[in-house]
Amino acid sequence: MSTPGRDHDGSAPVAVVSGAAAGIGLACVRELRSQGWLVAGCDLRVGDAADLDAVVDVADPVAVARFVDRVTRELGPPTGVVSAAGYVEEIPLDAISPAAFRRMLGVHLGGLHHLTRATLPAMVARGGGAIVAVASELAIAGGEDAAHYVTAKGALLGLTRSLAAESASAGVLVNVVAPGPTDTAMLAAGTVWRDPAYLATLPTGALVRPEEIALTAAFLLSGRGALTGQVVSPNAGTVI
Amino acid sequence: MKLSANHAVLVGLPTDVDRATAQVLRAHGTRVTSSRSHADAPLRPAPDLFVIGSTEARPAAAFLDTDPQTWWADVEGRLSALFARVRAAGRDLVAGGGGRIVLVLDARGLAGAAGATADATVGAAAIALTKSLARELGPAHVAVNAAAVSGPPEAGFAEPTPHEIAETIAFLADPRLPSLTGQTLPCTGGTIRTRA
Fold first, then answer.
1. What percent of chain B has a predicted confidence (pLDDT) above 70?
2. Can A198 be counted among the known catalytic residues?
3. Chain B positions in Cβ-Cβ contact with residue A207 (cut-off 8 Å)
4. Which residue among the candidates A59, A113, A135, A149 is catalytic per the annotation?
5. Which residues in chain A have their CB less than 8 angstroms from residue B135's CB?
6. Distance of CA B118 to the CA centre of its chain
7. pLDDT score, position B12
8. What is the ipTM, given to two decimal places?
Protein backbone atom coordinates (compact mmCIF):
# COMPACT_ATOMS: atom_id res chain seq x y z
CA MET A 1 0.00 0.00 0.00
CA SER A 2 1.29 3.49 -0.79
CA THR A 3 2.18 5.97 1.90
CA PRO A 4 -0.66 8.45 1.72
CA GLY A 5 1.01 11.71 2.66
CA ARG A 6 4.03 11.46 0.42
CA ASP A 7 3.79 13.13 -2.93
CA HIS A 8 5.02 11.20 -5.92
CA ASP A 9 7.53 13.91 -6.80
CA GLY A 10 9.07 13.97 -3.31
CA SER A 11 7.73 17.40 -2.35
CA ALA A 12 6.31 17.96 1.12
CA PRO A 13 2.81 16.57 1.52
CA VAL A 14 0.01 18.97 2.39
CA ALA A 15 -2.40 18.51 5.28
CA VAL A 16 -5.49 20.46 6.28
CA VAL A 17 -6.29 20.77 9.99
CA SER A 18 -9.52 22.30 11.23
CA GLY A 19 -9.74 23.73 14.73
CA ALA A 20 -6.12 24.70 14.23
CA ALA A 21 -5.96 27.73 16.53
CA ALA A 22 -6.02 25.93 19.88
CA GLY A 23 -6.06 22.67 21.77
CA ILE A 24 -5.90 19.37 19.90
CA GLY A 25 -6.00 21.01 16.46
CA LEU A 26 -3.05 23.25 17.31
CA ALA A 27 -1.09 20.27 18.64
CA CYS A 28 -1.81 18.47 15.34
CA VAL A 29 -0.52 21.44 13.35
CA ARG A 30 2.74 21.44 15.31
CA GLU A 31 3.25 17.67 15.16
CA LEU A 32 2.50 17.39 11.45
CA ARG A 33 4.85 20.26 10.62
CA SER A 34 7.58 18.61 12.70
CA GLN A 35 7.08 15.47 10.61
CA GLY A 36 7.53 17.32 7.35
CA TRP A 37 3.99 18.16 6.31
CA LEU A 38 2.97 21.53 4.95
CA VAL A 39 -0.07 22.39 7.04
CA ALA A 40 -3.06 24.60 6.30
CA GLY A 41 -5.04 25.43 9.41
CA CYS A 42 -8.52 26.82 9.76
CA ASP A 43 -10.54 27.90 12.75
CA LEU A 44 -13.18 30.41 13.77
CA ARG A 45 -10.36 32.66 14.91
CA VAL A 46 -7.13 32.99 13.01
CA GLY A 47 -4.27 30.81 14.15
CA ASP A 48 -0.57 31.46 13.66
CA ALA A 49 1.11 28.06 13.83
CA ALA A 50 0.40 26.65 10.36
CA ASP A 51 1.98 27.34 6.97
CA LEU A 52 -1.33 28.87 5.97
CA ASP A 53 -3.95 29.97 8.51
CA ALA A 54 -7.47 31.02 7.65
CA VAL A 55 -10.77 31.81 9.34
CA VAL A 56 -13.38 29.26 8.25
CA ASP A 57 -16.64 28.02 9.75
CA VAL A 58 -16.44 24.31 8.96
CA ALA A 59 -20.23 24.04 9.16
CA ASP A 60 -20.37 26.09 5.95
CA PRO A 61 -19.71 23.83 2.94
CA VAL A 62 -19.09 26.74 0.58
CA ALA A 63 -16.51 28.29 2.91
CA VAL A 64 -14.78 24.92 3.33
CA ALA A 65 -14.65 24.33 -0.42
CA ARG A 66 -13.25 27.82 -0.97
CA PHE A 67 -10.62 27.20 1.72
CA VAL A 68 -9.51 23.89 0.19
CA ASP A 69 -9.27 25.57 -3.23
CA ARG A 70 -6.98 28.21 -1.71
CA VAL A 71 -4.85 25.57 0.02
CA THR A 72 -4.51 23.66 -3.24
CA ARG A 73 -3.40 26.80 -5.06
CA GLU A 74 -0.97 28.06 -2.41
CA LEU A 75 0.46 24.86 -0.87
CA GLY A 76 -0.65 22.03 -3.14
CA PRO A 77 -3.43 19.44 -3.11
CA PRO A 78 -4.05 18.10 0.42
CA THR A 79 -3.38 14.40 0.94
CA GLY A 80 -4.05 14.60 4.67
CA VAL A 81 -7.01 15.92 6.64
CA VAL A 82 -7.49 16.24 10.38
CA SER A 83 -11.02 17.30 11.24
CA ALA A 84 -10.53 18.60 14.77
CA ALA A 85 -12.83 21.63 14.93
CA GLY A 86 -15.38 21.21 17.66
CA TYR A 87 -16.83 22.38 20.91
CA VAL A 88 -18.68 20.90 23.85
CA GLU A 89 -21.74 22.04 25.81
CA GLU A 90 -23.02 20.44 28.97
CA ILE A 91 -26.81 20.60 28.67
CA PRO A 92 -29.40 18.06 29.85
CA LEU A 93 -31.33 16.43 27.02
CA ASP A 94 -34.61 18.28 27.59
CA ALA A 95 -32.83 21.63 27.45
CA ILE A 96 -31.05 21.09 24.13
CA SER A 97 -32.75 23.39 21.65
CA PRO A 98 -33.22 22.37 18.01
CA ALA A 99 -30.82 25.15 17.05
CA ALA A 100 -28.18 23.90 19.51
CA PHE A 101 -28.58 20.37 18.12
CA ARG A 102 -28.26 21.54 14.52
CA ARG A 103 -25.17 23.63 15.27
CA MET A 104 -23.50 20.74 17.09
CA LEU A 105 -24.17 18.38 14.19
CA GLY A 106 -23.17 21.04 11.68
CA VAL A 107 -19.75 21.66 13.19
CA HIS A 108 -18.72 18.08 14.00
CA LEU A 109 -20.41 15.95 11.36
CA GLY A 110 -20.71 18.79 8.86
CA GLY A 111 -17.06 19.70 9.38
CA LEU A 112 -15.86 16.19 8.53
CA HIS A 113 -18.35 15.80 5.71
CA HIS A 114 -17.53 19.12 4.04
CA LEU A 115 -13.76 18.68 4.39
CA THR A 116 -14.02 15.17 2.96
CA ARG A 117 -16.18 16.28 0.04
CA ALA A 118 -13.66 19.02 -0.73
CA THR A 119 -10.53 16.85 -0.53
CA LEU A 120 -11.40 13.21 -1.24
CA PRO A 121 -11.85 13.44 -5.03
CA ALA A 122 -8.29 14.71 -5.50
CA MET A 123 -6.94 12.04 -3.15
CA VAL A 124 -8.73 9.32 -5.09
CA ALA A 125 -7.43 10.77 -8.36
CA ARG A 126 -3.87 10.73 -6.97
CA GLY A 127 -4.24 7.21 -5.60
CA GLY A 128 -3.71 7.94 -1.93
CA GLY A 129 -4.43 10.07 1.09
CA ALA A 130 -5.63 9.89 4.66
CA ILE A 131 -8.39 11.47 6.70
CA VAL A 132 -8.62 11.57 10.48
CA ALA A 133 -11.71 12.65 12.39
CA VAL A 134 -11.32 13.71 16.00
CA ALA A 135 -14.25 12.28 17.96
CA SER A 136 -14.40 11.54 21.68
CA GLU A 137 -14.47 8.62 24.08
CA LEU A 138 -18.05 9.78 24.73
CA ALA A 139 -18.89 8.68 21.18
CA ILE A 140 -18.07 5.13 22.27
CA ALA A 141 -19.52 5.03 25.76
CA GLY A 142 -21.93 7.97 25.96
CA GLY A 143 -22.12 10.40 28.82
CA GLU A 144 -24.40 12.68 30.81
CA ASP A 145 -25.70 16.07 29.77
CA ALA A 146 -24.25 16.20 26.29
CA ALA A 147 -26.58 14.14 24.08
CA HIS A 148 -26.14 16.46 21.11
CA TYR A 149 -22.34 16.34 21.44
CA VAL A 150 -22.36 12.55 21.83
CA THR A 151 -24.71 12.16 18.87
CA ALA A 152 -22.54 14.35 16.67
CA LYS A 153 -19.32 12.61 17.71
CA GLY A 154 -20.94 9.20 17.32
CA ALA A 155 -22.01 10.12 13.81
CA LEU A 156 -18.33 10.59 12.92
CA LEU A 157 -17.71 6.91 13.62
CA GLY A 158 -20.37 5.77 11.16
CA LEU A 159 -19.27 8.17 8.44
CA THR A 160 -15.62 7.24 8.94
CA ARG A 161 -16.19 3.50 8.76
CA SER A 162 -18.25 3.83 5.60
CA LEU A 163 -15.76 6.17 3.98
CA ALA A 164 -13.01 3.70 4.87
CA ALA A 165 -14.87 0.84 3.20
CA GLU A 166 -15.70 2.98 0.19
CA SER A 167 -12.20 4.41 -0.24
CA ALA A 168 -9.98 1.42 0.58
CA SER A 169 -9.55 0.34 -3.01
CA ALA A 170 -8.51 3.89 -3.89
CA GLY A 171 -5.74 3.84 -1.29
CA VAL A 172 -7.37 6.45 0.95
CA LEU A 173 -7.31 5.66 4.67
CA VAL A 174 -10.03 7.03 6.95
CA ASN A 175 -9.88 6.72 10.75
CA VAL A 176 -11.09 8.24 13.99
CA VAL A 177 -9.11 9.37 17.00
CA ALA A 178 -11.36 9.32 20.05
CA PRO A 179 -9.61 11.21 22.86
CA GLY A 180 -10.44 10.82 26.48
CA PRO A 181 -10.57 13.93 28.67
CA THR A 182 -7.73 16.03 27.28
CA ASP A 183 -5.83 18.81 28.96
CA THR A 184 -7.00 21.72 26.80
CA ALA A 185 -8.98 24.89 27.44
CA MET A 186 -12.12 22.99 26.42
CA LEU A 187 -12.03 21.25 29.81
CA ALA A 188 -12.95 24.22 31.94
CA ALA A 189 -11.42 24.77 35.36
CA GLY A 190 -13.70 23.65 38.13
CA THR A 191 -15.37 20.87 36.10
CA VAL A 192 -15.36 17.26 37.21
CA TRP A 193 -12.69 16.44 34.64
CA ARG A 194 -10.09 18.38 36.58
CA ASP A 195 -11.16 17.14 40.00
CA PRO A 196 -8.27 15.15 41.59
CA ALA A 197 -10.84 12.67 42.91
CA TYR A 198 -11.96 11.99 39.31
CA LEU A 199 -8.41 11.76 37.98
CA ALA A 200 -7.61 9.20 40.67
CA THR A 201 -10.28 6.92 39.17
CA LEU A 202 -8.50 6.81 35.79
CA PRO A 203 -6.20 3.82 35.21
CA THR A 204 -3.47 6.23 34.12
CA GLY A 205 -4.26 8.80 36.83
CA ALA A 206 -3.93 11.78 34.50
CA LEU A 207 -5.63 13.70 31.71
CA VAL A 208 -4.68 12.95 28.11
CA ARG A 209 -2.17 15.43 26.72
CA PRO A 210 -3.07 17.05 23.36
CA GLU A 211 0.33 15.98 22.03
CA GLU A 212 -0.74 12.34 22.40
CA ILE A 213 -3.73 12.95 20.16
CA ALA A 214 -1.50 14.73 17.67
CA LEU A 215 0.98 11.82 17.61
CA THR A 216 -1.90 9.43 17.02
CA ALA A 217 -3.40 11.54 14.23
CA ALA A 218 0.02 11.93 12.62
CA PHE A 219 0.59 8.15 12.71
CA LEU A 220 -2.78 7.55 11.06
CA LEU A 221 -2.08 10.21 8.41
CA SER A 222 1.33 8.65 7.68
CA GLY A 223 -0.33 5.43 6.55
CA ARG A 224 2.59 3.45 7.99
CA GLY A 225 0.29 0.94 9.67
CA ALA A 226 -2.14 0.81 6.73
CA LEU A 227 -4.93 1.23 9.26
CA THR A 228 -8.35 2.20 7.99
CA GLY A 229 -11.86 2.22 9.40
CA GLN A 230 -10.50 2.22 12.96
CA VAL A 231 -11.32 4.12 16.13
CA VAL A 232 -8.08 4.72 18.02
CA SER A 233 -8.77 5.95 21.52
CA PRO A 234 -5.99 7.31 23.72
CA ASN A 235 -8.37 7.95 26.59
CA ALA A 236 -6.44 7.46 29.85
CA GLY A 237 -8.38 4.28 30.42
CA THR A 238 -11.82 5.92 30.55
CA VAL A 239 -13.14 3.51 27.92
CA ILE A 240 -11.50 0.09 27.76
CA MET B 1 10.64 12.49 26.22
CA LYS B 2 12.18 9.41 24.62
CA LEU B 3 10.71 8.43 21.28
CA SER B 4 11.01 4.68 21.67
CA ALA B 5 11.53 1.94 24.24
CA ASN B 6 15.03 1.28 25.58
CA HIS B 7 14.86 -2.48 25.40
CA ALA B 8 12.13 -4.53 23.76
CA VAL B 9 11.58 -8.25 24.23
CA LEU B 10 9.68 -10.04 21.46
CA VAL B 11 8.07 -13.33 22.42
CA GLY B 12 6.01 -15.77 20.41
CA LEU B 13 5.46 -13.66 17.29
CA PRO B 14 5.09 -15.13 13.80
CA THR B 15 8.54 -15.17 12.19
CA ASP B 16 7.84 -12.46 9.60
CA VAL B 17 6.21 -10.11 12.13
CA ASP B 18 9.05 -10.76 14.62
CA ARG B 19 11.65 -9.83 12.04
CA ALA B 20 9.81 -6.71 10.85
CA THR B 21 9.07 -5.53 14.39
CA ALA B 22 12.71 -5.91 15.40
CA GLN B 23 13.72 -3.91 12.33
CA VAL B 24 11.24 -1.07 12.99
CA LEU B 25 12.07 -0.84 16.70
CA ARG B 26 15.83 -0.92 16.07
CA ALA B 27 15.42 1.90 13.55
CA HIS B 28 13.93 3.92 16.43
CA GLY B 29 16.98 3.17 18.59
CA THR B 30 15.47 0.37 20.67
CA ARG B 31 17.57 -2.62 21.72
CA VAL B 32 15.66 -5.74 20.73
CA THR B 33 15.83 -9.23 22.19
CA SER B 34 13.81 -11.81 20.31
CA SER B 35 12.99 -15.21 21.72
CA ARG B 36 13.32 -16.46 18.16
CA SER B 37 16.97 -15.51 17.81
CA HIS B 38 18.58 -15.34 21.27
CA ALA B 39 16.43 -16.96 23.87
CA ASP B 40 19.04 -16.89 26.60
CA ALA B 41 20.50 -13.43 26.07
CA PRO B 42 20.78 -11.48 29.32
CA LEU B 43 18.10 -8.81 29.53
CA ARG B 44 20.22 -5.69 30.08
CA PRO B 45 19.15 -2.93 30.35
CA ALA B 46 15.92 -4.00 32.00
CA PRO B 47 13.22 -4.33 29.30
CA ASP B 48 10.59 -1.61 29.16
CA LEU B 49 8.61 -3.15 26.30
CA PHE B 50 7.27 -6.65 25.76
CA VAL B 51 5.62 -7.63 22.47
CA ILE B 52 3.86 -10.94 23.01
CA GLY B 53 2.26 -13.09 20.36
CA SER B 54 -0.68 -15.43 20.84
CA THR B 55 -1.47 -16.31 17.25
CA GLU B 56 -0.69 -19.72 15.84
CA ALA B 57 -1.83 -20.87 12.44
CA ARG B 58 -4.26 -23.75 12.69
CA PRO B 59 -6.06 -25.49 9.85
CA ALA B 60 -9.76 -24.67 9.60
CA ALA B 61 -11.84 -27.09 11.65
CA ALA B 62 -15.62 -27.16 11.91
CA PHE B 63 -16.62 -26.92 15.56
CA LEU B 64 -19.10 -29.78 15.49
CA ASP B 65 -16.54 -32.05 13.86
CA THR B 66 -13.73 -31.21 16.27
CA ASP B 67 -12.69 -33.69 18.91
CA PRO B 68 -13.57 -32.03 22.25
CA GLN B 69 -10.36 -33.07 23.98
CA THR B 70 -8.23 -31.78 21.10
CA TRP B 71 -10.11 -28.46 21.03
CA TRP B 72 -9.79 -28.03 24.77
CA ALA B 73 -6.10 -28.97 24.89
CA ASP B 74 -5.35 -26.54 22.07
CA VAL B 75 -7.15 -23.61 23.68
CA GLU B 76 -5.87 -24.35 27.15
CA GLY B 77 -2.32 -24.80 25.94
CA ARG B 78 -2.26 -21.55 24.00
CA LEU B 79 -3.92 -19.55 26.78
CA SER B 80 -1.62 -21.03 29.41
CA ALA B 81 1.41 -20.03 27.35
CA LEU B 82 -0.01 -16.53 26.93
CA PHE B 83 -0.76 -16.29 30.65
CA ALA B 84 2.81 -17.27 31.54
CA ARG B 85 4.38 -14.83 29.09
CA VAL B 86 2.19 -11.91 30.07
CA ARG B 87 2.58 -12.53 33.79
CA ALA B 88 6.36 -12.67 33.49
CA ALA B 89 6.35 -9.47 31.43
CA GLY B 90 4.02 -7.66 33.83
CA ARG B 91 6.14 -8.59 36.83
CA ASP B 92 9.32 -7.40 35.13
CA LEU B 93 7.76 -4.10 34.08
CA VAL B 94 6.19 -3.37 37.46
CA ALA B 95 9.51 -4.16 39.14
CA GLY B 96 11.26 -1.86 36.70
CA GLY B 97 8.94 1.07 37.36
CA GLY B 98 6.76 0.86 34.24
CA GLY B 99 6.70 0.25 30.52
CA ARG B 100 4.43 -1.20 27.88
CA ILE B 101 3.04 -4.53 26.75
CA VAL B 102 1.74 -5.07 23.23
CA LEU B 103 -0.14 -8.28 22.58
CA VAL B 104 -0.40 -9.53 19.02
CA LEU B 105 -3.64 -11.47 18.88
CA ASP B 106 -5.98 -13.05 16.40
CA ALA B 107 -8.47 -10.58 14.90
CA ARG B 108 -10.98 -13.40 14.64
CA GLY B 109 -11.37 -12.84 18.39
CA LEU B 110 -13.28 -9.66 17.48
CA ALA B 111 -15.49 -10.86 14.67
CA GLY B 112 -15.39 -14.64 14.88
CA ALA B 113 -14.85 -16.88 11.88
CA ALA B 114 -16.35 -20.12 10.70
CA GLY B 115 -13.94 -22.98 11.16
CA ALA B 116 -11.81 -21.06 13.63
CA THR B 117 -13.57 -21.33 16.98
CA ALA B 118 -10.33 -22.14 18.81
CA ASP B 119 -8.45 -19.22 17.24
CA ALA B 120 -11.35 -16.85 17.95
CA THR B 121 -11.66 -18.07 21.51
CA VAL B 122 -7.97 -17.52 22.20
CA GLY B 123 -8.11 -14.12 20.47
CA ALA B 124 -11.10 -12.97 22.47
CA ALA B 125 -9.50 -14.13 25.70
CA ALA B 126 -6.38 -12.16 24.81
CA ILE B 127 -8.53 -9.05 24.27
CA ALA B 128 -10.11 -9.46 27.70
CA LEU B 129 -6.68 -9.96 29.22
CA THR B 130 -5.47 -6.77 27.52
CA LYS B 131 -8.36 -4.78 28.97
CA SER B 132 -8.07 -6.11 32.51
CA LEU B 133 -4.31 -5.79 32.64
CA ALA B 134 -4.56 -2.21 31.42
CA ARG B 135 -6.78 -1.44 34.39
CA GLU B 136 -4.70 -3.45 36.84
CA LEU B 137 -1.26 -2.26 35.76
CA GLY B 138 -2.13 1.34 34.86
CA PRO B 139 -1.38 2.63 38.35
CA ALA B 140 2.06 0.96 38.06
CA HIS B 141 2.68 2.93 34.82
CA VAL B 142 2.36 -0.09 32.57
CA ALA B 143 0.26 0.43 29.43
CA VAL B 144 -1.23 -2.68 27.80
CA ASN B 145 -2.57 -2.69 24.25
CA ALA B 146 -3.07 -5.16 21.44
CA ALA B 147 -2.72 -5.39 17.68
CA ALA B 148 -5.33 -7.71 16.17
CA VAL B 149 -4.01 -9.41 13.05
CA SER B 150 -5.08 -12.07 10.54
CA GLY B 151 -8.42 -10.64 9.53
CA PRO B 152 -10.54 -12.20 6.81
CA PRO B 153 -9.44 -11.30 3.27
CA GLU B 154 -11.95 -9.17 1.42
CA ALA B 155 -12.06 -7.85 -2.14
CA GLY B 156 -11.01 -4.20 -2.36
CA PHE B 157 -8.93 -4.30 0.83
CA ALA B 158 -5.17 -4.79 0.85
CA GLU B 159 -3.87 -7.18 3.48
CA PRO B 160 -1.27 -5.43 5.64
CA THR B 161 2.35 -6.43 5.18
CA PRO B 162 4.47 -7.64 8.12
CA HIS B 163 6.18 -4.25 8.02
CA GLU B 164 2.84 -2.43 8.34
CA ILE B 165 1.89 -4.67 11.26
CA ALA B 166 5.27 -3.88 12.81
CA GLU B 167 4.63 -0.15 12.40
CA THR B 168 1.30 -0.56 14.22
CA ILE B 169 3.04 -2.48 17.00
CA ALA B 170 5.65 0.29 17.26
CA PHE B 171 2.85 2.86 17.51
CA LEU B 172 1.19 0.92 20.34
CA ALA B 173 4.62 0.68 21.98
CA ASP B 174 5.34 4.42 21.81
CA PRO B 175 6.31 5.63 25.31
CA ARG B 176 5.03 9.11 24.42
CA LEU B 177 1.45 7.76 24.61
CA PRO B 178 0.78 7.06 28.31
CA SER B 179 -2.96 7.61 27.77
CA LEU B 180 -3.18 4.85 25.16
CA THR B 181 -3.99 1.75 27.17
CA GLY B 182 -6.50 -1.08 27.12
CA GLN B 183 -7.06 -0.68 23.39
CA THR B 184 -7.17 -3.35 20.70
CA LEU B 185 -6.33 -2.05 17.25
CA PRO B 186 -7.40 -4.22 14.31
CA CYS B 187 -4.54 -4.25 11.81
CA THR B 188 -6.32 -6.03 8.99
CA GLY B 189 -6.33 -3.46 6.20
CA GLY B 190 -9.82 -2.30 7.11
CA THR B 191 -11.73 -5.57 6.79
CA ILE B 192 -12.60 -5.42 10.50
CA ARG B 193 -14.10 -2.08 11.50
CA THR B 194 -15.69 -2.99 14.81
CA ARG B 195 -14.15 -1.96 18.11
CA ALA B 196 -13.27 -4.40 20.84
1. 96
2. no
3. 179
4. A149
5. 203, 237, 240
6. 17
7. 95
8. 0.95
pLDDT along chain A (240 residues), means of 10: 51 97 98 98 97 98 98 98 97 97 98 98 97 97 95 98 97 98 93 92 97 98 97 98
Domain locations in chain A?
14-232
B24 assigned to some structural domain: yes
- Secondary structure of residue A47 in the 3-state scheme: coil
What string of DSSP letters covers A122-145? Answer: HHHHHT-EEEEEE--THHHH--TT
A171 within 8 A of A2, measured Cβ to Cβ: yes
Give me the domain span that covers residue B100. 7-186
Instruction: Give the model confidence (pLDDT) of B158-189 as tens digits.
Output: 999 999 999 999 999 999 999 999 999 999 99
Interface contact flag, A237 B135, Cβ < 8 Å: yes
pLDDT of residue B38: 60
Kindly state whether residue B151 falls inside one of the protein's structural domains: yes
What order of strands is seen across the sheet that includes strand B142-149? B31-34, B7-11, B49-53, B99-106, B142-149, B184-186
Q: Do A168 and B190 touch (CB under 8 A)?
A: yes
**Overall domain count for chain B:** 1
Task: Flag whether B1 is in a domain.
Answer: no
What chain B residue is nearest to A208 in terms of C-alpha separation? B179
| CATH code for the domain defined by A14-232 | 3.40.50.720
**What residue in B sits closest to A232 (Cα-Cα)?**
B185
Residues of B in contact with A180 (CB under 8 A): 179
Please report, for the domain that includes residue B109, its CATH number.
3.40.50.720
Domain membership of residue B193 (yes or no) is no
